[in-house]
Amino acid sequence: MAQTRIIIADDHPLFRAALRQTIETHYGDALIEEAGDIEALTGLLEQNRECDLVLLDLAMPGVRGFSGLLLVRAQYPDIPVMIVSASDDQQTMSRSIDLGASGFLPKSTDADAIQSSMKTVLEGGIWVPDGFTFDDGQAEIAEYTKRLATLTPQQVRVLMMLSDGLMNKQIAYELSVSEATVKAHVSAILQKLNVDSRTQAVIVASKLEQGQIEAVAGA
């Protein structure tokens, strides 16, 4: 049987160490790797795409809101991702599951629940805390979330840069592509999100982070 490979992606070394210790208690034979930012995580996955589980913090250097989850799910769709976050409100959990996470683990979760959650996800299931409901009554947000989930990895990067206020020329330089390629990505993003301008696309991404969609079409 192949060795179980788990990657802990979190920018706090002490939390990574504590989580590693908890995992090793029940998965002593597992290969556990650590990443402190999104670039380190994607680097590990590029070196070896065989991975059984990524434990991903939503708030890490190089990501904002759900962009890290979007990027990993778009680039490595076959790898289960479980969110491990201090932001454990209903909306954040709902958005994470809608965007393809296989589970949501609040950082306050005890060791027994961590082991239970990992067992569920490693066996192909979805794990959420007790009391979580998949229907949060915000159909409009869920619809935009599903649209965001259709973006390719490069389109996610472009949207992140648009959110940072970069122009096409700057994005092209950062991604080492032509401006024409960036324009094509922007057009695809607008089409997938069903909005008319880059400003509206940025508003969609921003509102999803905040858990609300307000007057997107009128922006």
Automatic annotation (TrEMBL):
<feature type="modified residue" description="4-aspartylphosphate">
    <location>
        <position position="57"/>
    </location>
</feature>
<dbReference type="InterPro" id="IPR000792">
    <property type="entry name" value="Tscrpt_reg_LuxR_C"/>
</dbReference>
<keyword id="KW-0597">Phosphoprotein</keyword>
<protein>
    <submittedName>
        <fullName>DNA-binding NarL/FixJ family response regulator</fullName>
    </submittedName>
</protein>
<dbReference type="GO" id="GO:0006355">
    <property type="term" value="P:regulation of DNA-templated transcription"/>
</dbReference>
<dbReference type="InterPro" id="IPR058245">
    <property type="entry name" value="NreC/VraR/RcsB-like_REC"/>
</dbReference>
<dbReference type="InterPro" id="IPR001789">
    <property type="entry name" value="Sig_transdc_resp-reg_receiver"/>
</dbReference>
<dbReference type="Pfam" id="PF00072">
    <property type="entry name" value="Response_reg"/>
</dbReference>
<dbReference type="Pfam" id="PF00196">
    <property type="entry name" value="GerE"/>
</dbReference>
<dbReference type="GO" id="GO:0003677">
    <property type="term" value="F:DNA binding"/>
</dbReference>
<feature type="domain" description="Response regulatory">
    <location>
        <begin position="5"/>
        <end position="122"/>
    </location>
</feature>
<dbReference type="InterPro" id="IPR011006">
    <property type="entry name" value="CheY-like_superfamily"/>
</dbReference>
<dbReference type="InterPro" id="IPR051015">
    <property type="entry name" value="EvgA-like"/>
</dbReference>
<keyword id="KW-0238">DNA-binding</keyword>
<feature type="domain" description="HTH luxR-type">
    <location>
        <begin position="144"/>
        <end position="209"/>
    </location>
</feature>
<dbReference type="GO" id="GO:0000160">
    <property type="term" value="P:phosphorelay signal transduction system"/>
</dbReference>
<dbReference type="InterPro" id="IPR016032">
    <property type="entry name" value="Sig_transdc_resp-reg_C-effctor"/>
</dbReference>
